[in-house]
Amino acid sequence: MNATVAQNFYPPMLTQSKKQLNSTPMNCTGRLFSIILIIACGLYAAGAERVVFKGFERGMGIGGWLTNYKRFNVLPDKWRMKITVGDMEHFRSYITEEDVKNIADMGLDHIRLGFDQIVIEESPYKYREEIFDMILRFAEWCKKYKLNLVLNLHKSLGNYCDIKEEVSLFESPELKERFVALWREFERRFSGLDYVAFELLNEVRDVNPKDWNGLAETAVSEIRKLNPKRIIIVGGTHWNAPYSLGKIKLFDDPNIVYTFHFYEPFEFTHQRGVLQASTLFYNRVMYYPSDIAPYREYRECIGADATLYKNLAKMDKNALRRMLQPAFDFAKKHPDKILWCGEFGTIRHAPGRSRENYMRDIISMLKENGIQYCVWNYLSTPNDGNRFSLVDDDNRKILSPELLKIIRGEVD
After folding, report:
1. Which positions ≥6 away from 90 have C-beta within 8 Å?
2. Residue 35 in contact with residue 14, Cβ under 8 Å?
3. Does 68 sit behind a cis peptide bond, omega within 30 degrees of 0 on the bond before it?
4. b or e along 171-191 (b: 16 or more beta carbons within 10 Å of the residue's beta carbon)?
5. How confident is the model at residue 164 (pLDDT cuts 50, 70, 90)?
6. Rounded to an integer, what distance in angstroms lies between the CA atom of residue 210 and that of residue 199?
7. Over 60: is that where the pLDDT of 4 sits?
8. Which residue ranges make up each domain of the chain?
């Protein structure tokens, strides 16, 4: 494997992007954190750039283990919410300590681990001890290899990002309470692990932002009763689209991180994907950068608004910048709020050079705007119809040396 890039292991804390504050050991005290916060606020007043939290600058997402272990699209309703013997065997074997070491050796500083509510929750308010033990053991591996950790509720009951459910999380008082209770349980079990952040929910569907903001506020309040300093990550609605940041609730809390995802243009990032009807129907290899014609033709083919790209001659970095602009505007408007891009990437079978070009352009723009990031995804199951994996299935090595440089942020 490539030589490990020198890095430090920091607990989540407020720092400043250009005028970096001194590093703090893992067991930093609340008093020192307050001093750092005061200094950082002084830097804003002096016109310094936006804040970040050190130790979450470049990360790797892990799906395919405790989430996306199988796709529900093809399952009848009666089978979707059941955990089978095969599922448990997969959970016990798919990700090991070697994978955590591998990610550390890539020169990354954090992991975003996705899990589903039904994987943890055996029945209402009753949890699978074996799964909690797995996640705690995973957290210990992260500590051993000096990686910070984001625990991400990828799919909650009533809010599966890829299937429509009969009962929405936001319409069911019981599902809301179970959602909040789950995070209370996580705080109880992970108390004292200050290198672990909680991401409340992966991709909220196209619901009224007020409904999600209210539930997020309740969850934050309950966690705060147990831990006033836990890093909590909150995204917007409409699958965490950049434009949803404009309607997200802002907290008067320096330990709240705001997040968004980016998969535009969809016809490139999900090209020929078998789980999406539009890309499966179009069935075309897409390149990046590219003349705009194939992208316009995609929209015409599926009957979508073909004028979306009318002012574009190319699908290139400038086009992506326009799509990302709402996130950049949020970062500029709220320099005191931490902003983190928690997901972006391309499907595995996209042309390799185009995949590198796309990732390079996105990471370079995120860095220009002082936004930290986490790429998606380390490894997808071989039978997954939506594989975004960045490593080989068998040897788990990064797919290309150039791709490794890019995800490390070496894009200048």
Report:
1. 65, 69, 381
2. no
3. no
4. eeeebbebbbbbbeebbeebe
5. confident
6. 19
7. no
8. 12-49, 53-272+310-407
> Rounded to 5 degrees, what are φ and ψ at 72?
-80, -15
Catalytic residues: 203, 343
Read off the tokens for 378: 């380390």
Torsional class of 345: left (φ above 0), alpha (ψ -120 to 50), beta (otherwise): left
Residue 111 half-sphere exposure toward CB, CA atoms < 13 A: 28
Burial code (b: 16+ CB inside 10 Å, e: under 16) for 285-317 equals ebbbbbebebbbebbeeeeeeeeebeeeeebbb
Helices (H), 245-302: 266-269, 277-282, 293-302
Amino acid at 305: D
User: How, if at all, do strands 338-344 and 372-375 pair?
Assistant: parallel
Q: What are phi and psi of 183, to 5 degrees?
A: -70, -35
Q: CB atoms < 10 A from the CB of 221, how many?
A: 11
Q: Rounded distance, CA 155 to CA 257, Å?
A: 19
Instruction: Please tell me the predicted confidence (pLDDT) of residue 91.
Output: 97
Between the alpha carbon of residue 375 and those of residues 110, 137, 292, 337, the distances in Å are 10, 23, 26, 21
Yes or no: say if 167 and 120 are a contact pair by the CB < 8 Å rule. no
Task: Provide the terminal-to-terminal Cα distance of the chain, rounded to the nearest Å.
Answer: 23
Q: Using an 8 Å Cβ cutoff, are 154 and 114 in contact?
A: yes
Name the average pLDDT for the chain: 89
pLDDT in tens, 197-237: 999 999 999 999 999 999 999 999 999 999 999 999 999 99
Maximum separation of any 2 CA atoms in the chain, in Å = 60
CB half-sphere exposure, 160, CA atoms < 13 A: 17
Residue type at position 138:
F
Which of 412, 361, 358 has the alpha carbon at shortest distance from 388? 358
How do 256-262 and 338-344 pair as beta strands? parallel
Query: Is 309 within 8 Å of 292 (Cβ atoms)?
Result: yes
Minimal CA–CA distance to 199: which of 161, 251, 154? 154
Q: Residue with structure tokens 């705009």?
A: 292
Q: Which helix (H) or strand (E) holds 122?
A: strand 121-123
Specify the amino acid at residue 348.
R
Whether the CA torsion 232, 238, 239, 245 is positive or negative: it is negative
CATH superfamily, region 53-272+310-407? Glycosidases (3.20.20.80)
Amino acid found at 402: E
Which amino acid appears at position 384 of this protein? D
